[in-house]
Each structure stands twice: as C-alpha cells, then as structure tokens.
C-alpha cells in the first residue's frame, strides 16, 4: 500500500480506521514456511492477534491452521471455514466445561495444568490431548509478555513431570503433542534452541506423539532499521535439531508454530486525523481523533509504533507529542520527530495489525473503528464502524419513576 492508497482509504471509510495489507500477510507466511525444511510443518495463526473472520479466511486459504485460547475463537475459526482438526485450543484458567465444549467441536485440546488434565483425562480418556509444559525459560521483550518463566501461570512445570506421567498412566489418556511458549518479541534464537532441548527431553516420556509445538514469539521490526528474529537462521538450526530428535524418537513428527504478531503486525496501519495542534510552554501536542481505546499497546506495553504524517510527508520535520482524546494519560508518542503536522492531517501508525483492534474497547463510550483489508490493489471493508445503536444494543434499560413523596429533604 502506498501513502496515496492509505489517504484514499481514510477518505472513503473515515477515521480512525485500521487497514491491513493482505500481500504482507501472505509474504510473511511464505517466509516462515520456507525457513523450516522438515517432513511436516504446521503453522497455526494465533487468532488473538487479529480475529476478524476475513483475516481467518485468508489464513485458511494459505493452508494455515489456527491457535485459539477461547471457545469463541474456535467458533470464529469454524465460521471462517477452518477444519476443526487444524485448530489447536490452548486456554488458561478456563473451566472444564469450556474445554469439553471445545472437544465436542473437534479442535485439538492443549491442557496446561495438572488438575484439569486429571479431570479431563478421567472423563474423556479417548480424546487426544496435547500438554503445555513450562520450560522455566525467561524470554520476551517485556515482562508482561514473558510466559515461560518459573513464576508464570502458564504451563505445567517440567519439574512436575513425574506427577504428570502418573496422571496419564492412571487415566489411560492419549497424549499426542507437547507444547511450549516462552514469550513474545524474542530476538535471540538461542532462546528457542535452548528451550527446544527441554521440549525434546520432555517428549521422550510419551511414545505416541504426533507433533511438537514450539509456540512462537518471533520479534518483528518496529521502526526503520530495527532488528528482528532471524527466521532463516532459526529454521536452519532448529530443523537439524528436530530431524535428529525424530530419528532418535523413531518416527517423523510434525513441527508446529503458532505465530500471531509475526504474520499480521507489519501488515497493519492505523489511520487517525489530527483534531488540534496545541502549543504549551514546553510541548507541541498533536491531538488526534482516537485514543488508547483503539490502540492501547503504547500505554500498556510501552510499545513503539512509527508515526508518519501521510498528508504532508515532504514537509520539514518538527517534534510533537501525539496524544489521544481519552480523559486519562493517553500518549502515543512523546517528543517524536514527524513531518510538520497541521490540523486535519492524517497520521499513519505502523505495526497496527496485531493486538490493536483485538484489544480495542468502547471506553468513554466511543465507537470502535472500521477495518479494511487491502487485497489485490483494492480496499475491502471487513468490519463496519460501530454506531450508537451498537453501544446500546445489549443494554436492558430500567424505568425509574419518582414522585415528590419519594424525595426526602433534610434541613
């Protein structure tokens, strides 16, 4: 997509608006699948990153499966036409009833705690189950997205393996996969390689495995010249280790990954209009027609999103703090160098494909924006902008009547 294309989208669909480039998603998928030369590679897109049904249908058309964390995400995948056998369900802290509901839908169950494992195995020993282990590896670009360390709520500790094996033996359940996920924004491929050895060792305890799931967490670039996970190097090194393990194990297994951000982050742009330029004694603020109700990552994770003034790209750069319209601290960028901004200009936020719309809310009773997919040179609306009716649709309104005698006035 060119800046001209983005301006046309903002003109046609209004702002703020999310725009996703299908070609970038496709190229990221092809890059990932080309990096691993194994007997069977399974890619399951992490639905929580961006769950629009049209995006799921695009993933399905590429041959990509889905990684889900809720029964609702499983149902979205089925709605998009994804075969349930290509959906893995990895919840955390959900009820046994929800897991059983998903099992009935045919998705691959992945269990990450001993209590639920024992309960599910006792009631459904015939249903194949994957086990999520916690390798006790600290990884990720932020403490809030590191999920494989010893204090994490995710996974079954590798030190609980004897207990885990007793449950499997006592229930007679069938374990067909082993899974781990250490965190997001992992740059050092050594983390993956180290954790893989832990996963291989754990896998030796199970004789009927069909796949090993390495989760994801690949780092994407957030600014020009930024570093990212070297997928090709990881692919070459992990392929060797995986092939060696399969030979020792006695049969070929599928190598599985669950990328979300890697596939859609760079494909997304978020467009917002500048409402006001406000000069204070120390700062120039560019106030835009959105806030952390639509893009919370900078406030939640301290994440960086490049911001470009696509309405005035050739102008001299000045320093601005880009802020939203929410009545709390709502800063997207502080003292950021951007081409001169005028009221009415359109700003484009990069890396807006992952965990942006999916974490949006109606805070301040604002409408959630429209979503547009740029596909084969054309803009396709894939979600309408919300309206006032959407805010009130599920509210049950009570009727209050008061009379003078109901009022008590104290002197």
TrEMBL record:
A GO MF label = diaminopimelate decarboxylase activity
Q: Keyword set for this entry?
A: Amino-acid biosynthesis, Decarboxylase, Lyase, Lysine biosynthesis, Pyridoxal phosphate
**Which SUPFAM superfamilies does this entry report, sorted A to Z?**
Alanine racemase C-terminal domain-like (SSF50621), PLP-binding barrel (SSF51419)
Amino-acid biosynthesis found in the keyword field: yes
One of its Pfam families is Orn_DAP_Arg_deC
PTM N6-(pyridoxal phosphate)lysine: list the residues. 48
Which BP terms does GO give this entry? lysine biosynthetic process via diaminopimelate
UniProt cross-references to CDD domains, sorted A to Z: PLPDE_III_DapDC
The catalytic site is made up of: 327 (proton donor)
* NCBIfam families per record: lysA
Q: How does it assemble?
A: Homodimer.
Q: What is this protein called?
A: Diaminopimelate decarboxylase
Q: Which organism is it from?
A: Christiangramia crocea
């Amino acid at each position: 997509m060119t800046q001209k294309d983005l301006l046309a989208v903002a003109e046609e669909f209004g702002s703020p608006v999310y725009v996703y480039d299908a070609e970038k998603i496709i190229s990221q998928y092809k890059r990932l699948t080309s990096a691993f030369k194994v007997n069977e590679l399974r890619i399951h897109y992490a639905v929580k990153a961006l769950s629009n049904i049209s995006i799921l249908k695009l993933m399905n058309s590429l041959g990509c499966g889905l990684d889900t964390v809720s029964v609702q995400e499983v149902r979205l995948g089925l709605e998009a036409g994804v075969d349930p056998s290509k959906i893995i369900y990895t919840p955390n802290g959900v009820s046994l009833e929800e897991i059983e509901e998903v099992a009935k839908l045919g998705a691959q169950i992945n269990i990450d705690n001993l209590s639920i494992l024992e309960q599910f195995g006792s009631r459904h020993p015939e249903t194949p189950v994957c086990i999520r282990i916690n390798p006790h590896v600290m990884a990720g670009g932020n403490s809030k997205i590191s999920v494989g360390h010893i204090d994490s709520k995710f996974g079954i500790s590798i030190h609980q393996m004897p207990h885990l094996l007793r449950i499997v033996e006592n229930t007679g359940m069938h374990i067909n996969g082993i899974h781990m996920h250490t965190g997001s924004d992992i740059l050092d491929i050594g983390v993956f390689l180290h954790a893989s050895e832990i996963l291989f060792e754990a896998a030796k305890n199970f004789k009927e495995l069909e796949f090993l799931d390495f989760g994801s967490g690949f780092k994407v670039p957030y600014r020009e010249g930024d570093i990212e996970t070297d997928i090709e190097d990881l692919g070459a090194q992990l392929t060797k280790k995986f092939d060696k393990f399969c030979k020792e194990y006695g049969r070929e297994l599928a190598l599985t990954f669950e990328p979300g951000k890697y596939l859609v982050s760079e494909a997304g742009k978020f467009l917002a209009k500048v409402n006001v330029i406000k000069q204070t004694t120390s700062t120039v603020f560019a106030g835009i027609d959105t806030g952390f109700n639509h893009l919370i990552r900078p406030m939640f994770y301290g994440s960086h999103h490049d911001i470009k003034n696509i309405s005035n790209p050739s102008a001299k750069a000045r320093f601005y703090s880009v802020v939203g319209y929410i009545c709390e601290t709502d800063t997207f960028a502080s003292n950021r160098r951007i081409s001169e901004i005028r009221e009415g200009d359109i700003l484009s936020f990069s890396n807006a494909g992952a965990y942006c719309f999916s974490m949006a809310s109606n805070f301040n009773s604002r409408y959630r924006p429209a979503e547009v997919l740029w596909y084969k040179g054309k803009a396709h609306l894939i979600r309408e902008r919300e309206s006032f009716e959407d805010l009130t649709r599920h509210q049950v309104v009570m009727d209050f009547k008061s009379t003078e005698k109901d009022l008590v006035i104290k002197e």
